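hey can u check if this looks right to u? its 446 residues, i copy pasted from the old doc so theres a chance i mangled smth
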Amino acid sequence: MADWRTFNVVILGLGFLFIFTAFTTCGNIEQTVVKSLKNSTFSGSGYHSLGIIYGVFSFSNLLAPTVVTVIGPKVTMFLSGLLYSGYVAMFIHPATWSFYFTSVLIGIGAALLWTAKDVFLVENSEASTSTGTRGLFWALLQCSMLFGNLYIYFDWKGKTEISDVSRRIIFLSLTVVSVLGTLSFLLLRKSLHQEELLSEEEGRSLLGARQMYKERAGVAIQDTKSEFKTILQLLKTKIILLLSPCMAYTGLELSFYSGVYGTCVGATAQFGKSAKGLIGISGIVVGVGEVVGGGLFGLLCQNSRFRRTSVVCLGMIVHFVAFYLIFLSIPSDAPVVWETSTQETPYLTPSASIALLCSFLLGLGDSCFNTQLYSILGRVYAEQSAPAFAIFKFVQSICAAAAFFYSGSVLLMWQLLLMVVLGFAGTLCFFVVEQTQNFSVDLQED
């Protein structure tokens, strides 16, 4: 049984690796691709598309558990993978209506996919192996930042414009990769828990398949209602309210490093012919920062001498250094220019090494905030971790959606200033929560 569980986790990780190799690469370059289209009838915005995805994702999370319970995690992940593949394939022959329609579909698919993934991981791990199981999956998932962006670097290196032929080849390749990831979910074996449920249902087969699905749906709806009530209760608690600015900040910086910063680098005129290729390398280096931060801070925080506040403070400093260097070296009009490269001149001459250093710092800082938010929520709400994490994902996704919608019309300097203000406020609030928890623990020990 243990071997089948490990097999399932590896296949699950590979499926996500393929799907998100396609999707993260797509998200990193889509605004640049949209700007390069020679189609006069296309009027879409990559920023708006990503905003729709995160907005729909945040609300779809409320209903996703019901769907997963009724049709099962394996089928759910397969159908969600098809939605991801459809979104990527749309760029082969883009149209405005299909661009935004598939954005809505992938927002729904993302909620279903991540919820089904959590359920499937729980079914294929025990309490003693859950950390290793999630670590194996996380390691495979993080590799998705590497391969697609590496392809973009070699394909776009030395190019000032993205031709229609180049675009079609890129997105056809990414679509094939995403479809392979989707098909890999069909290789997943049923867990012991699922086999027991199937045996129980086969024993009641006289009731008919329709009746069994009704029973499943009824139980799922009741569970969803119960969890929604818990979420509403937690939203009123002091700790969630205090952590909200920090959660919101992770949404803003998520949108910045995953979609805005790469576009800014690619639009910087001073980089010349290397600008477009740097988008791919930037995405890779962000991923390296995420992996280094996630691994390092995961190990450090197992040692009681390292407090969560130290890691969050480091994340704030790392991000503020990155923001300052970006402010100095990237033209302020980089996110908003459309048909041309940047017109403004930055304070410092743009440097590829500084741009990539900022990419690494963005990924490193993001891992600081996310790992510690999950850590403190898991500690404070040990018995209600699922609703607490749902609130985190909801706030983060809503703020990421809002950030994507304003990113195409607000100068870079104001976007950076907003993140600095919210990041500082979020860090202060995190400190207050951590100190409150430490004080409570000290009282209990006394």
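Residues 250 and 305 are 25 Å apart (CA to CA).
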